[in-house]
Write a structure and sequence with these properties.
39% of the residues lie in helices and 6% in strands. With 150 residues, it is mainly alpha-helical. The chain has a domain at 50-149: Glycoprotein, Type 4 Pilin (2-Layer Sandwich). The protein has a three-stranded antiparallel sheet, covered by helices on one side. It starts with a helix and ends with a strand.
């Protein structure tokens, strides 16, 4: 008899009662609130990652341009563009000490070529991406990302 009383006081796990409808509703409401707070933050992450990648690319291109200038005394002409970092220019002023400064010329994270201005409007030279929309100016993901921001 003592063993019968022990079983009633401590039911086995599979004999315990299930969750009530109210408990399930509370859990669903909490999950909904958490999803409403987290999802908007996750949606902005791809744009932030692209902007970070563009800043890193611009920084690498600027370093290559500085090496070009050290070797050749000046930056590539606007007509030669950034292509002068991967192929020796054959038009305009031909650099005397040219070497390969980049293995390849990257496109921005939105698949468009980086822009190059010599002379620049924000510095001696400007290297920039036109952002997600491919148009000058813009805000947030559409904002230009340039060497003047580094």
């Amino acid at each position: 008899m003592a063993s019968g009383n022990l079983a009633q006081k401590h039911p086995r796990p599979w004999q315990q009662q299930a969750f009530t409808l109210i408990e399930l509703m509370v859990v669903l409401v909490i999950m909904g609130v958490l999803a409403a707070l987290i999802v908007p933050n996750l949606m902005a992450r791809p744009d932030q990652a692209r902007a970070t990648a563009a800043r890193q690319d611009v920084g690498s291109i600027m370093q290559a341009l500085k090496l070009y200038r050290l070797d050749n005394g000046e930056y590539p002409a606007a007509s030669q563009g950034l292509r002068a970092l991967v192929e020796k220019p054959t038009a305009g002023k031909i650099p005397s000490n040219w070497r390969n400064y980049l293995e390849r010329l990257p496109n921005d994270p939105w698949g468009k070529p980086y822009q190059y201005l010599n002379p620049g409007t924000n510095g001696e030279i400007d290297v920039f991406s036109l952002g997600a929309d491919g148009e000058p100016g813009g805000e947030k993901a559409n904002a230009d990302i340039g060497s003047w921001q580094l």
